[in-house]
Design brief:
With 472 residues, the protein is mainly α. The protein has one domain. It has 18 helices and 7 strands. It has helices at residues 5-20, 23-33, 54-67, 74-83, 85-104, 131-155, 159-181, 187-196, 221-240, 245-261, 265-284, 289-311, 313-328, 334-352, 368-393, 402-425, 435-447, 467-470, and strands at residues 2-3, 42-44, 50-52, 110-111, 125-126, 207-208, 211-212. The strands form 3 sheets. A 3-stranded antiparallel sheet has the order 1-2-3. Strands 4-5 form a two-stranded antiparallel sheet. Strand 6 (207-208) and strand 7 (211-212) form a beta hairpin. The two termini are 38 Å apart.
Length: 472
């Protein structure tokens, strides 16, 4: 295990907050760490070059802060496990199957492995245990720990507001890195982004029809687009629900603009899916002034685009080529055909394993849904479906104060963000791990339905950095 500069920084900050900080302060570090999707806190050459992302190290400190003796969080941890029980079942079964599934069905099935080398389009290998089974099990455990830690932090009266405040800073940084990556030919920019993109997995720099695909400090354009979509959904919903609207509104607009500029099919599909559901609900409720203002803004944007193409037809020609490459012909391209093959694998191995699943990390998918079905079988699929049902259809107590009303509104926004993630992951995710990024918003949405806990969730005050969320 080789630490990187990010790992060292996180250990120093984590140790300091472990002694001097609060659960909410540690949660803030987790949210910020989620920005560094292409970074590694630790490199694991013994596990085939795998990496430990910064968010997982931050999670370890958050969980330690929650479970250490004397933390006073025992009741909230039990509540977190109860409210996230379907996720607990899903992860535990997934970890068990990651260890025994590849051995149970070894050499019986052929699968496309998680780590793809250059080779035939539909390459497959006999199923055997690999380091990816351990890596994926580790990531899934981190997702569960993130849900528990986030839930505890968001039961604090300051927790959900900290998610909004920290999210604003983090999302603007995400946009900034995305703009930087659009100038990929600049040597200084490339060096800066390369410093952050130090993880052991493939770091892609791509162009389509001469247009640089935006990656920010994520490993690939689709990863950047997914993060952009989730932050956009959260910030837009916060704006619509009047949670810091002067800050969240402009940020939502910036996230929307850079999402359109990503040229990521995954991002576009996710945006359409989220937008369709959102529009359906808005129309069902008779619409709102803010919904109408968004429609008006879109009309202005369309008119502006039409005017631009009138005065500069080359813009339309370039946009048309990009659209054809990333949308119209995506399904028949070699990449599209390969992804469809990967996605179908989940259904194939589900049937071949008689519904048991062959274990997370055993094969590469291109859909969270089929990855879960193939890797965790009936048990895991039902557990995750139950978790989504609890998240989307569960109800909490009616707000009894202005503070609780704001908590409820932030919780609704977080639930929308979690839903947006599922929509896009359903067409792009390589593994059954829903990721810590999803867990942050899902657990925040569940925690918002419960009353805040003033005493137990507080701890010793901290000085300078996290004073806003840590002081008594």
């Amino acid at each position: 295990m080789i630490p990187t500069v990010f790992g060292v920084i996180l250990i120093v900050v984590g140790m300091w907050l472990l002694v001097r900080g609060s659960v909410v302060a540690m949660f803030v570090v987790v949210v910020v760490s989620s920005l560094f999707g292409g970074s590694a806190a630790f490199l694991l050459p013994a596990l085939g070059g795998s990496s430990v992302p910064p968010v997982n190290i931050a999670l370890l400190f958050l969980v330690a802060r929650v479970v250490l003796p004397g933390s006073g969080q025992g009741a909230l941890v039990r509540a977190a496990l109860a409210d996230n029980l379907p996720l607990v079942v899903f992860v535990l079964y997934g970890v068990v199957m990651a260890l025994i599934g590849p051995r149970l069905f070894a050499d019986v099935l052929r699968v496309a492995p998680m780590r793809q080398a250059n080779g035939p389009l539909f390459a497959s290998l006999p199923l055997v245990p690999t380091s990816q089974n351990l890596t994926t099990a580790f990531y899934m455990t981190g997702t569960l720990l993130c849900a528990v830690g986030t839930y505890v932090a968001c039961r604090d009266p300051r927790g959900l507001r900290a998610l909004v405040d920290t999210g604003i800073v983090t999302a603007w940084a995400h946009v900034g890195f995305g703009v930087m990556s659009a100038f990929g030919s600049n040597g200084v920019v490339t060096a800066v982004l390369g410093f952050f993109r130090n993880a052991g997995y493939a770091q892609l720099n791509e162009e389509v029809e001469g247009v640089v695909r935006i990656t920010g400090i994520q490993p690939e354009p689709s990863s950047f687009a997914i993060a952009t979509l989730v932050w956009f959904a959260f910030m837009y919903e916060c704006w619509a629900l009047k949670v810091r609207p002067r800050a969240t509104g402009p940020l939502a607009l910036a996230l929307f603009a850079i999402l359109i500029a990503t040229t990521s099919t995954s991002g576009y599909v996710g945006l359409v899916g989220y937008g369709a559901v959102r529009l359906f609900i808005a129309v069902g409720r008779g619409g709102t002034r803010r919904s109408l203002s968004v429609v008006a803004l879109l009309l202005v944007a369309i008119a502006g685009g039409a005017a631009l193409t009138y005065y500069n037809p080359a813009v339309l020609d370039s946009a048309s080529r990009v659209y054809t490459a990333v949308v119209a012909k995506k399904g028949t391209s070699s990449s599209g055909l390969q992804r469809a093959y990967w996605a179908r694998q989940g259904l194939t191995v589900f049937a071949a394993s008689d519904g048991l699943g062959i274990g997370p990390g055993s094969f590469r998918s291109s859909s969270l849904i089929t990855a879960i079905i193939g890797a965790t079988g009936i048990v895991g699929s039902l557990a995750f479906a139950a978790y989504l049902a609890r998240l989307l259809f569960g109800r909490g107590a009616a707000p009894t104060s202005a503070a609780e009303d704001e908590r409820a509104r932030i919780g609704i926004a977080a639930t929308w963000a979690a839903l947006a993630y599922i929509v896009v992951a359903a067409v792009v995710a390589a593994s059954p791990d829903p990721t810590a990024f999803f867990a942050i918003f899902a657990a925040a949405g569940l925690a918002a339905r419960r009353g805040s806990v003033t005493g137990a969730a507080r701890s010793a005050p901290v000085r300078p950095v996290m004073r806003q969320w840590s002081a008594q």
